[in-house]
Structure formats: C-alpha cells, structure tokens
Amino acid sequence: MTRSIERRPTLAAVTESGLPASSPPSRGRKVLLSVDDDPGVSRSVARDLRRRYGAEYRIVRAESGPQALEALREMKLRGDDVAVLLADYRMPGMNGLEFLEQAMDLYPVARRVLLTAYADTDAAIQAINIVDLDHYLLKPWDPPEEKLYPVLDEQLAAWRATDHRALPEIKVIGHRWSRRTSEVREFLARNQVAYHWLPSDSGDGMRLLVAAELTTPDTPVDPALLPVVVTPDGEVLPAPTDAQVAQRVGLETRPATDFYDLIVVGAGPAGLGAAVYGASEGLRTILVESSAAGGQAGQSSRIENYLGFPDGVSGAQLTDRARRQAAKFGAEFVTTRQVDALEINGSARTVRFVDGDRLSGHAVILATGVSYRQLEAPGLSELTGRGVYYGSAMTEAPNCRDQDVYIVGGANSAGQAAVYFSRYARRVHLLVRGASLEASMSHYLVEQIAGIDRIVVHTGTEVMGASGDGHLEHLTLRVRSNDPDGGQEIREEIVPASHLFVFIGAAPRTDWLDGVVTRDPRGFVVAGPDLTVDGSAPVGWPADRVPYHLETSVPGVFVAGDARAESAKRVASAVGEGAMAVMLVHRYLEGLE
Ligand SMILES: Cc1cc2nc3c(=O)[nH]c(=O)nc-3n(C[C@H](O)[C@H](O)[C@H](O)COP(=O)(O)OP(=O)(O)OC[C@H]3O[C@@H](n4cnc5c(N)ncnc54)[C@H](O)[C@@H]3O)c2cc1C
C-alpha cells in the first residue's frame, strides 16, 4: 500500500501548537518537538515554547516516545527540519533517553535536551553520554525567562551554526557494491553531511538518472558515471571527486589567505587539539585535512576511555564538538586538501598540496596519524569497497542487518567494531591470529565482547582469500587449533560472507616527509629528546638549543599524535600532544623575535 502522508492519522495525536488544528503542515518548517507523558506538563511546555518561539518555529508536542518518533518520521518525509528535541526522562514504555537515542537516527543534528525531575538527576547524569545530550533541564523551570529560554536560545544558536550541513536533499545514486560509491557515502557521513542514498538499480535511483539524462529507462547506466551526486539545487555531479563534493555541500576547501602563524596538517584528535589551543591562544591557525575531520577516532563507534565521558562518546560526536570548538576560536579548516611536501624557505615553513598550491606559516604541526595496513591475500584488493572495508565503514552497518559479518584484528579498534556491528548483524565473527584477545585488547572490551552472544571470537584464525562475483561472497579462513595430543591441527574453511572489516595495525602517513624530517625505520617522525645524542643536538641541527619536546629535526616543525615515534596511540594522548605542541610553538616563536 502506498504511504500517503496526508491521510495518515498519527500527527493528529500530536498537537501542532504553532498551527490551527486544521492547517496542513507546511513543508520545510523548522520544528521544536517536546515529549512528556503528563498531558498537563506537555501542554504547559508547548505553551511556554509557543510564547517565545511560536513565530519562527512550529511547536510539536507528543505524549509518548513512540508517538513522537512517528511524528518525526513524518516530518522527515516532508522535509521538515527539527531544531530541538525536549524529552521528559521518566515516561512509561520508552523513557526519554531511549526516545532521544532513536530520534538521533532521524535528526542527528537536532539539539537534545532532557527534562528531569530533581529525583532523576543522578540517572540522567549517568546516561548523558549515551545520547550525547546537549543539556538537561530540571523541572519545574519557572520562570521560563530565567530557566528555560536561555537554555533554548543557546541550543538554537548552536543548531543554527550547524544547520547548513543538515540539508536533507543531497542525493547519492550509486551501485550497492561500488567502491567509489561507498567512499563518497563515507566521506559525506564523516563530514556530517546528511544525504539520501538511492541504489542505481532501484526505481527512484533510475528515475533520477533518467531525469539527469545520464541514461534512458531501458539502458543500464554506464558504471563509470557512478556515483552521481545531486545537490539540493539540482546540480548533477557524475563520478565526482571528494573535493568537488566538498565544494558543493558547503565545506571549505581553499584557505582564506596564504600565510598563517600556524599550519596544522591532519584533523584527527591531535590536529583538532592543536587547532583549538592554537586559535584560542591567538595564533592565526589553519587546519588542513585530506579527507574528513576526526581521523581514526572519527571512525570509532564508541570511545570508552576518553577523559570526561564516563559512558563513552562516539568518534563522530567528539569530532563534531571539537570542530565547532576550533571554529569558535577562529581556526580555519580546509578539507579534501592533501599535503604532499614540506619546504623550508628561510624562517617560513611551507606546505605544498597535491595540486601544487602552497601555504606558508611561521610554524607547522604534523598530525597526520596512521592508516590501516592492507591485508594481503588473494581477492581482497579487488573486493575492497565491495564487501571488504578498512576501518569501520559505519555507513555499511544497516546493510549488515541479519548477515554474518567478519572482523579481522585483535586490538581495541577491532573489538569496538565487533560491539558496534553486533547491534545490526545476525552474527559477528571476530578473527584473531593470536591465541587470545587478552594480550592485545583492553580488559573492559574483552569483557564486553564476552557478554554479547552474537559475537563469536575465532582465535588462531587468518583470512587466506576472498572471492565473489562483483562483491564479497566467500572467505577462505585458515584455522589453527590444538589437538588433545598437544599437536596442532591446521585446516582451511570456506565460509559465506558479505562483509569483512579489517583492523590490522597501522602505518604512519609520513612518506611525503622523507628526506625532510628524521623518521624512524618504520616511518614514524622522531622528535625532541629522541633526536638528541647524549643530550646534545643532532648533527645538522641549525639552532643553538636542543630541539623542544615535540619538535622534529626541522626547527619550527612539530609532530603530535600517532605519527610521532613512540607515541601512545590513544585519543587522549593525541589531543594532549596537540595542545602541548602549541605551547612549544609559542616558545619557538618567542625565540624568533
Ligand atoms: C576504530 C578505532 C577505534 C579507536 N578507539 C580508541 C579508543 O577507544 N580510545 C583511544 O584512546 N584510542 C582509540 N583509537 C586510536 C585513536 O583513534 C588514535 O590514537 C587517534 O585518532 C590518533 O590521532 P591523530 O590525530 O594522531 O591521528 P589520526 O586520527 O590518524 O588523524 C590523522 C588525520 O590526518 C589526515 N592526514 C593524513 N595525512 C595527511 C596529509 N598528507 N595531508 C592532510 N591530511 C592528512 C588524515 O586524513 C587524518 O584525518 C581508535 C582507533 C580506531 C581506528
């Protein structure tokens, strides 16, 4: 049966307080939604909201979580934007946090506010990070002028600042198993740009491709044109580069000027940390990123050990906050700009982009992190992006529903991915080469995995090959096991598989620095005391002091985070090194005066 928005009765159950009951809801309006199971409180919240915000926003109220979710789904279909979700904590059936968690899937950038009675405060605080809550408000809030409106004004200002990235109309049309399609989807998702994906062989996908005159109804589209991105104003981009997509969706790709106090290369936790501290301390700071902010941490479904987030925080949430924080202090951020050379021009430090453009500054912080090692086995490289993925590729999660998913790796990143995909997949097989997880994974994660029935850990197991017609269909595994006589049995198994996620260690992204700064044999950048010889400056060091702690073999060029030799490979230490590098940049700049 066709779903008709107008005929469905559910919105009638939700009073649209900003409109007369008979008005058809106008398309594309901005909404404030509140949900409270107590009809009296619900009405009074709506009344307070309407009084202050009714002219600009449509006020929608619901009396249960499921009812509010139904209303959100309809608003999503209509193209409405939801700015703030206000949910009561204690509600029968579905509590406020459960509601907000599901609402995030529909409106990820809507601000989330939880209303709690005094007695609920402890529980609410404990759960704050489950939904990355933006605020919790104690009831009652009288007078609203003092207790409710200032909070909402602040939330609305924050929402408006991210609003342009919440455009629902960007469409990506591509093949389900195309490597480039999954890259573009991942790029948009990691830059927090909402998009609508349409498989190129679906009716809607075909209709759009025909409308764009890229094919006719009876002809399959030329795969070389895919994916096709359609922007909100109808511009059609066949097989676009990341930079073309970035420009069209409002991401900055060009620096505003050609000289800065500080250039930070790489926008993972170390680079974001450096940008926040650099800009907040008055340095004209630019952050340059080849892909999307967040780095490896941006791919993490839940970081459990970052200070200040007792219930964990997703990499996407942490990245979004850090990026906004850096922007608030005035740091510039350009994306899809890969740096491929570092030049020393007198006291200026110059980075060169792949397209030949250059950018100079007084100091540079290298925060280029690491990337996953490729798994070497027949068939894997051909199927990368077509069922084989490096890192989490979280956009794939819904496609894993009711499937068996394979994850390779024994470290925390693989463990987190197993926990994340277990929410979607029928079964998650964690393939570990070693004899146990304990040696390589944090204890808390080993315990978490042990408590999830859907995750099966296969120790002594390696991937020997992959095959499939256009996408991954089978994996060949080699399994080592001990037999009762103390010997070892080795057998090969071929298993059906549609998804393989690989997390097998990392290599530093520093090849472009070869011959410019000192690197260790594995390519990590050596800095500070690791450069000195018996406490003295290394040969060729041009200054009359030893290198500062995070300074590389080139004065004024610093390194922070995973790219540094002997670094801790943790979010907190990367952020800390970013901040510390800025302090050392100040010291370096003082020496120049
Ligand atoms: C899935 C996963 C889960 C994790 N979970 C945890 C956890 O729970 N707790 C924890 O403490 N740690 C965790 N880690 C490790 C943590 O994410 C890293 O230690 C941290 O991200 C390192 O930060 P970084 O800024 O040094 O480097 P990265 O995060 O690697 O960021 C480097 C950035 O630089 C960019 N870049 C690289 N080269 C260039 C170039 N030439 N030009 C421009 N830009 C460039 C990259 O695109 C990238 O965005 C996890 C890692 C992964 C992959």
Automatic annotation (TrEMBL):
UniProt KW keywords: Flavoprotein, Oxidoreductase, Phosphoprotein
The Gene Ontology terms for molecular function here are: thioredoxin-disulfide reductase (NADPH) activity
Disordered: annotated span: 1-33
- Catalytic activity of the protein: [thioredoxin]-dithiol + NADP(+) = [thioredoxin]-disulfide + NADPH + H(+)
Q: Which Pfam families does the protein's record reference?
A: Pyr_redox_2, Response_reg
The protein's matches in InterPro entries, at most eight in alphabetical order, are given as: CheY-like_superfamily, FAD/NAD-bd_sf, FAD/NAD-binding_dom, Ferredoxin-NADP_redctase_2, Sig_transdc_resp-reg_receiver
Name the Gene3D superfamilies for this protein. Answer: 3.40.50.2300, FAD/NAD(P)-binding domain
* Domain Response regulatory, residue spans: 31-154
Keyword Flavoprotein in record: yes
Residues recorded with modification 4-aspartylphosphate: 88
State the coiled-coil residue ranges: none
Q: Which GO terms describe its biological process?
A: phosphorelay signal transduction system
Official protein name in the record: Response regulator
Organism the protein comes from: Nakamurella flava
| Lineage summary | Bacteria, Bacillati, Actinomycetota, Actinomycetes, Nakamurellales
